[in-house]
Amino acid sequence: MGIVVQKYGGSSVADATSVKRVAQRIVATKKAGHDVVVVVSAMGDTTDELIDLANEVSPLPPARELDMLLTAGERISMAVLAMAIGNLGQEARSFTGSQAGVITDAEHGKAKIIDVTPGRIEKAIAEGAIAIVAGFQGVSQTTKDITTLGRGGSDTTAVALAAALHADVCEIYSDVDGIFTADPRIVPDARQIPQISYEETLEMAANGAKILHLRCVEYARRNDMPIHVRSSFSDKPGTWVLKAEDVTKDPTMEQAIISGVAHDRSEAKITVVGVPDQVGYAAAILKALGDAQINIDMIVQNVSAAATALTDISFTLPRADGQTAMTALARLKDQVGFERLQYDDSVGKVSIIGAGMRSAPGITARFFQALADANVNIAMISTSEIRISVVVAESQVENAVRAAHSAFDLGTDEVEAVVYGGTGR
Amino acid sequence: MGIVVQKYGGSSVADATSVKRVAQRIVATKKAGHDVVVVVSAMGDTTDELIDLANEVSPLPPARELDMLLTAGERISMAVLAMAIGNLGQEARSFTGSQAGVITDAEHGKAKIIDVTPGRIEKAIAEGAIAIVAGFQGVSQTTKDITTLGRGGSDTTAVALAAALHADVCEIYSDVDGIFTADPRIVPDARQIPQISYEETLEMAANGAKILHLRCVEYARRNDMPIHVRSSFSDKPGTWVLKAEDVTKDPTMEQAIISGVAHDRSEAKITVVGVPDQVGYAAAILKALGDAQINIDMIVQNVSAAATALTDISFTLPRADGQTAMTALARLKDQVGFERLQYDDSVGKVSIIGAGMRSAPGITARFFQALADANVNIAMISTSEIRISVVVAESQVENAVRAAHSAFDLGTDEVEAVVYGGTGR
Where is the ACT domain (chains A, B) (predicted)? Predict the structure, then answer.
């Protein structure tokens, strides 16, 4: 049998007991005849504790040194996990990102993987050992300094290693059973999705679903690496993320037009009121935001009232960037001559996602009718080929998710008792 | 000015406050015009905490993985120290043992340094940065695995780097002001030694003085690297460890025959009673101990009583090895035909050390008379060219140290309020 790459997040290795449980699962996979490569995050709160320590000595720690510090977290967890596996009678060898051949650019704190040269990993598994690799870290191709990959880095490490090793599958373990049709904390009859395409998963991740990070799914899609999202606390099959043509149509659902409903409460909305409707003014606004390193999400420009020749431009952005954006825009007031700025951080985004909507007419109407029936007012709309998103009042997010989930018959009869949590890094 | 290598032990970087204090000292050295390379141990109790964690998952952790785990300790302290220095406006770059070019053999947990290739350190200081290097660790030449150097490893890293960089001096910082003529906790008028030879320091270290480790002094002697032993809590000059011919004779002492009195309470004594006085029996006993990896220190064989043709063989060894040694010897009982074994772990060793004794007659008599006057009974004696050691009852160790210190006029008039502590690793 082939190579299986397994990734365990921080909550799966939070303490010695959890580490031992994970070790048993890894050994079981090895005994089933697979070559096993494991990518592991830092134990529990280690990363936060290390950041606290850094802040005790410096208000703005140099990025190179912060990476050196934080990578100690995975070093600890991988060594301890290797020991726990050794204690079960299987040889395990731990490797840093650098030793595992995870080559990155030199952007400390948010490095990108340039190449993976896993010679030492291949040697270890050829010799019968289980290889344990530190997630979230690599080594800069140019400076030879240690780097960290930023958010989603451990998942991305796992997928990148799986691709470089031509593994059969990359299993991503967390404390959740898989990907659901909606957040089960909001929709009690949400159903676990057995298989889903990369494209749909990307739209889910980009629109607030917290199971997999965008980067990791992108990497898997580019390399056609199957991901199996599973819980480290159970043996249930999870959710397979696959090429669209490999996804088996669910026989219990005649027309799986919509795969799931995602929501996101991390955005805010800014409206620039009274912009002169002239060429170049919208561009100036967007340039100012770009220069301030702010990624905007949706953007809507109203039709101008002919009498005034003034228009409003609204957009959404991460709430964390709200203040920076408002400051950057305020500086433009005289140049652009707009009337005023409005800032609203009590908004939420609800999205329906499904590859089936490409060929099914009337989806938008059905979605909007469901929202209307639930008395949810729509503030902004944006669509892609396989997604429709609306911005609503934050207080209406849960209503909107339930209405959409029900309108597209996504529910199951069994209500699962699961907690829909976030992944670490 | 040239390169200064500074080594700070775990007690000097126990918490954020200590790290900031050490950072100021380092920056002051840099501002005085030196190129500065710093070797640092793990913060405070970090190493013990990591060992506890390892023991939670495995009673006998694999040595390779234990090294991977423990090296996280220095990784944390060096990164945090680099941040604290950066906060004072100086650039500092941290380097793992591997990055600093500390090449070792593959003996995990007690690796020996084979070579030091500090190209990245030289580049960093050439570019004006302060280099911070993780002590106690290296990388195996053959396996490319991370190794630790065992006891005294951080001091040895510092001396080895200083030698490879052709530094002017290797400064070893701890919580003690320097090397003293005796332990000031036992001898209140013990005097700090301004300068002392490598050979005397080696004898002090080998006979219970806890300031410097044997390995580090050996390395310095072989490479003629001056060591300056200092406190990180004060600016006082410490003790210089130098080539014998470079040691300035203390003008206040007419004849510095004896440099210091060392004592050691870590040994036990085993006596094999009633060994047939025949060729090969003593050798068989020593071989059995060697096979059990036990280093014996002193050894004494009584003259046999002609009537019985039986003799007694006594030796001292580390108390920690007592049980192993007794087990190994008991197995020999029938083969050698000795009468019985005696084990005594309430013994201590007191040594006077001084290069001057080479040319001064009567030193042994003066030492033994002082012990007799203090009612100290001598159980065993051993000597080298520059040392005389006696084994006494543990309860008599302090008496014996004071008697010897006084007999050779080692005291000072000022009583220093210092704590004579041990170095970490």
Answer: 270-355
CA distance A229 to chain B (A): 26
Residues B258 and B318 in one domain: yes
Q: Give chain B positions within 8 Å (CB) of A91.
A: 62
Same domain, residue pair B83 and B160:
yes
Is B300 an interface residue toward A (CB < 8 Å)? no
Q: Tell me, yes or no, if A23 comes closer than 8 A to chain B by beta carbon.
A: yes
Q: Looking at the complex, report in whole angstroms how far the Cα of residue B20 sits from the nearest Cα belonging to chain A.
A: 7
Which has the closest alpha carbon to A233: A178, A193, A179, A196? A178
Whether residue B424 is predicted with pLDDT greater than 80 in this model: the reply is no
CATH of the domain at A77: 3.40.1160.10
Report the relative pairing of strands B340-344 and B35-40 from DSSP bridges.
unpaired
Distance set, CA B414 to CA B158, B190, B196, B235 (Å): 33, 9, 20, 19
Q: Is B366 on the interface with A (CB under 8 A)?
A: no
From chain A, pick out residues whose CB is under 8 angstroms from the CB of B65: 79-80, 82-83, 86, 92-94
Q: Residue B309: its pLDDT value, please?
A: 79
Interface predicted TM-score (ipTM): 0.83
Give residue A112's pLDDT band: very low, low, confident or very high (50, 70, 90).
Answer: very high
| Whether the predicted pLDDT of B306 surpasses 70 | no
* Dist. CA B314–CA B286, nearest whole Å: 11
Q: Tell me the whole-structure pTM to 2 decimals.
A: 0.86
Asked whether residue B420 carries a pLDDT value surpassing 50, the answer given is: no
Interchain contact, B69 vs A76, CB within 8 Å: yes
Q: The tokens 């007012």 sit on which residue?
A: A377
pLDDT exceeds cutoff 50 at B405: yes
Predicted pLDDT of residue B70 = 96
Dig out the tokens for B395 from the structure. Answer: 């309860």
Q: How many domains does chain B have?
A: 2
Side-by-side strand order, sheet with B92-95 = B92-95, B130-134, B35-40, B3-8, B169-174, B227-231, B239-242, B195-197
**How many C-beta neighbours within 10 Å does residue B60 have?**
11
CB pairs under 8 A between A and B: 109
CA angle B113–B118–B120, rounded 5-degree value: 140
**Whole domain around residue B285: which residue ranges?**
254-408
| B240 and B266 both lie in a single domain | no
Average pLDDT over residues B394-421: 77
Select from B16, B72, B144 the Cβ nearest to the Cβ of A72: B72
B67–chain A nearest CA distance, Å: 9
Q: How far is CA B115 from CA A8, B156, B164, B261, in A?
A: 38, 12, 9, 35
> Cβ contact (<8 Å) for B50 and A76?
yes
- How many angstroms separate the CA of residue A72 from the nearest CA in chain B? 5
Is B147 within 8 Å of chain A by CB?
no
Residues of B in contact with A86 (CB under 8 A): 58, 61-62, 65
Which of B246, B277, B302 lies at the terminal end of a domain, its last residue? B246
**What residue numbers of A does the annotated binding site cover?**
7-10, 47, 74, 185
How far lies A129's CA from each of A4, A92, A97, A397, B269, in Å? 13, 5, 18, 49, 45
Give the pLDDT band of residue B211 (cuts 50, 70, 90).
confident
Cβ within 8 Å, pair A62-B99: no
Of A53, A62, A86, the CB nearest to B86: A62
Residue pair B313/B325 in contact by the 8 Å Cβ criterion: no
**Inter-chain contact A76–B72, Cβ cutoff 8 Å?**
yes
Residue A249 scores a pLDDT above 60:
yes
CB B159 within 8 A of CB B4: no
For residue B102, pLDDT beyond 60: yes
Determine the distance in angstroms separating the CA of B62 from the nearest CA of chain A, rounded to an integer: 6
8 Å CB contact of B75 and A71? yes
* pLDDT of res. B248: 81
What would the mean pLDDT of A55-81 be, rounded to a whole number?
A: 96
